[in-house]
Amino acid sequence: MTLTPLVYWAQRHEEIYLRVELTDAQNIDVQVHENVLKFQALGRGAKGQHNYEFSLEFLLPVKPEVRHKSTQRQVNITVRKQQRGWWERLTVLERKPVFLAPDFDRWLDESDAEMELQEKEEKKNRLKTVRHTEEGFISLKTSFLLVYNLVQFLGFSWIFVNMTVRLFIFGQDSLYDTFHTISDAMFFCQTLALVEVFNAAFGVVRTGVFPTLIQVVGRNFVLFIIFGSLEEMHHRPVVFFAFYLWSAIEIFRYPFYMLGCFNTEWKTLTWLRYSVWIPLYPLGVLAEAVAVVQSIPIFDQTKLYSIPLPKAIGTSINFSYFLHVYLILMCLGLFINFRHLYKQRKRRFRTKKRKTH
Fold this sequence. Notes:
This protein is α+β, with helices and mostly antiparallel strands and 357 residues long. It has helices spanning 110-170, 178-192, 194-201, 209-227, 237-260, 267-273, 277-302, 319-356; strands spanning 2-3, 7-11, 15-20, 23-33, 36-45, 48-57, 62-70, 75-81, 100-102, 307-308, 316-317. The chain has a five-stranded mixed β-sheet, with no helix packed on it. It has a four-stranded mixed β-sheet with strand order 1-6-5-4, with no helix packed on it. α7 packs antiparallel against α8.
């Protein structure tokens, strides 16, 4: 036996909404043909579990495409009007079918519907404005990161190539004048590297602030305090090894970031960026530690950066005491950064394997 379900309706300027009261509806068939909607389904309605069907001839033309969505309690149907407008009733017949009633949960008067439409348009325009603003910010951020990484790549590449060429030409002699030939470029690049700390702190790039701070501050401490302040350190070979190891890491890191600005990847460069640090980073920290150790007797002798105490005590706190503590902190920083870089590498290549599979 075929029965008619209860049907509730509401409208907007462009759509008709129908709500069919059927629980656990199955075998749903909804079609619009020659402006008549026909519905059939098996479900539990007012008369229990039966086949239910109905048909409605609309007042004005509608589009043949119809959407329906079944939930546990009802079937929701959406029909689009052929022309935008407000209907005085749903069907051609002035007398509405007995199974049809207004859906007061969605019912709006024409003026209210017009206001709702205006609110939707305003919301859409606001979202569009926000999207354009975000796109402008993203393009500005991308341009900034691209220029920054390019400058750093060129700087560290100049350092690395210059030191390599000098090593081949002058041999062992090049180890002793590295500071005088390279220090200006290294001062520039390492000062500029402070930008990376601010980028991490303000969310310009997604990376940890603390590991970035450890690396940048650690290098700059050795560069400005150990090498820059002590003329006796300028001719030490440790300057060559520290500068060479720092630049060897960066000539792979910065071009990797540059390609990331274009959402592009070069597999060889990716592997180098996440692999060369494994031997080079500990060696770089070792060179920094050697520089600190070599500077301790010089600071003791020159009393540079020592903190004078009152005459009653009759002594001062040598800067070398701080350097002994700093050596311990370097070991801790090496552990933290090595662990951070290893996690990055593991996560990167695990993600790539999943994409491959």
